[in-house]
Design a protein that fits this description.
The protein has 107 residues and is an alpha+beta fold. It has one domain (7-87). Helices cover 24% and strands 17% of the residues. It has 2 helices and 4 strands, in the order ββαββα. It has a two-stranded antiparallel sheet. Strands 3-4 form a two-stranded antiparallel sheet. A hairpin with a 6-residue loop joins strand 3 (74-77) and strand 4. The longest helix is centred in the middle third of the chain and has 19 residues, at 29-47. The model has no long low-confidence stretch (mean pLDDT 82).
Length: 107
């Protein structure tokens, strides 16, 4: 039988800070996320562009802009390499439905 994961405070072996982690995690979420973004940045630089990512990544140097608070597509100057790039903001919709008959019966 598998052991149930336990969420506990431990010292992260990467950053050496006390963090809340699952007992089977090898590093804290912040360290894992930094590695993921660094890998993503490298891939974006190799490709020269990115698609449908959760973070804004400079396609020239891979610098992470996080999610920023941009509301519309715009051109940016990278704070790391000072090169220009364009950011398109993409939105997706999701929908929920319910049967009208079932809703009327509840009322």
């Amino acid at each position: 039988m598998m052991e149930k994961p336990i969420y506990e405070k431990r010292i992260c072996p990467e950053c050496k800070k006390e963090r809340s982690m699952w007992n089977d995690d090898k590093e804290c979420f912040e360290c894992r996320d930094k590695k993921r973004i660094a890998k993503l940045g490298k891939e974006v630089v190799e490709e020269g562009e990115s698609y449908n990512e959760d973070e804004i990544i400079c396609p020239w140097c891979g610098a992470d802009y996080g999610t920023d608070d941009m509301q519309e597509s715009t051109d940016c100057n990278c704070y790391e390499c000072d090169k220009k790039f364009h950011v398109d903001i993409e939105y997706s919709a999701s929908y929920s439905t319910s049967k009208l008959q079932a809703m009327q019966e509840i009322k």
